Automatic annotation (TrEMBL):
This is Methyltransferase type 11 domain-containing protein. It comes from Apiotrichum porosum. CDD domains: AdoMet_MTases. It comes from the Eukaryota. Pfam families: Methyltransf_23. InterPro entries: SAM-dependent_MTases_sf, Thiol_S-MT.
Length: 298
């Protein structure tokens, strides 16, 4: 009985999120009118960004509450084949050093970069830091690539609360415009993409561009919702595609049907690709996830 309830709730959940977004439309319009920012009404991209920023003040914490038990161990390197594993059997290193976080939004995950989550440090070997498996090291620098200015005040405040002032830098552009900013290619130890690759333009091209910023041996931490997996069946795939006719309009351009694994695998050579649907996700998930870590060759 409870599984029938879970199934129905799972199928209805996207409609609850769409209703939530619709409910915040009047507040968004009133905010724009109060500021006298009339031009926003003639610019869909600006309006949609502003609407989504308002929606995410409520949606973001809800999503974080549901996903924290996955994202914290992910950033510790304690994920294998879609499951959280103990430190002593972890095969990957956690996040540390210099990091690019794509689409941080209002900073829902920024606290995880704070020093309070550090579980170990890199050893220095031949003058190079060697990160330890299953351990999350100190984050020295984060570039938060966030094009939506409506998210920046909350993001800045959360970075400060996490003790990252001076270490967390908001780069106010989209992933497609980071070339020419002051981030050097092959300079970052980790890329973190949590629930953002659904929203970026030209995913395959921009993911491949981003790959070039990883150092040899660098890791890419992924928790993304994606196109339904073949194992979920045709009915879920159809339902997801039907929802996707309206979803991006209400959700800041988010696309439910992204083939993110394909883009990541095609981005460049990998020494290790460990990506899977989380083991506890049901077959009827309408926002099934891609979860895991990719490691660039040394
Ligand atoms: C669904 S929200 C997730 C935010 C955050 N990662 C979280 O989990 O709370 C997607 C984020 O991607 C950002 N985004 C949209 N287009 C982008 C682009 N071209 N480059 C980088 N980020 C983008 C949006 O502004 C938004 O903050």
């Amino acid at each position: 009985m409870s599984s029938l309830f879970d199934l129905l709730y799972g199928l209805l959940e996207p409609w609850l999120l769409l209703s939530l977004a619709a409910g915040y439309l009047p507040k968004t319009i009133v905010g724009i009118v109060k500021r006298g920012a009339w031009a926003t009404f003639g610019n869909w991209s600006a309006f949609s960004s502003e609407w989504f920023a308002v929606v995410w003040t409520v949606g973001g914490p809800m999503v974080r509450a549901g996903a924290e038990s996955k994202v914290v161990p992910l950033l510790q390197g304690r994920v294998r084949a879609g499951a959280v594993v103990p430190v002593d059997v972890a095969t990957q290193c956690g996040v540390g050093g210099t990091v690019i976080e794509i689409g941080p939004g209002s900073g829902m995950w920024v606290s995880i970069f704070s020093d309070k989550y550090v579980t170990g440090g890199p050893e220095v070997k031949d003058g190079k830091p060697v990160f330890k498996k299953g351990e999350r090291s100190r984050v020295d620098k984060v570039y938060g690539i966030e094009p939506n200015p409506g998210q920046h005040p909350a993001l800045r405040a959360r970075a400060k609360d996490a003790g990252l002032e001076g270490r967390y830098e908001i780069v106010p552009v989209g992933i497609e415009d980071i070339a020419g900013r002051h981030i050097a290619k092959e300079s970052v130890d980790a890329i973190v993409t949590v629930l953002c690759l659904c929203s970026i333009p030209d995913q395959e091209k921009n993911v491949a561009e981003l790959y070039q910023y990883l150092k040899p041996g660098g890791r890419w931490f992924v928790y993304e919702h994606v196109k339904s997996h073949p194992s979920q069946g045709e009915a879920i795939s159809l339902y997801q595609r039907a929802l996707n006719l309206i979803w991006p309009t209400f959700m800041g351009g988010c696309d439910l049907c992204r083939r993110t694994e394909k883009s990541l695998r095609a981005a460049g050579a990998w020494a290790d690709v460990d990506l899977a649907m989380p083991v506890d996700e049901p077959w009827w998930a309408t926002t099934p996830h891609l979860y895991g870590i990719l490691t660039k060759p040394e």
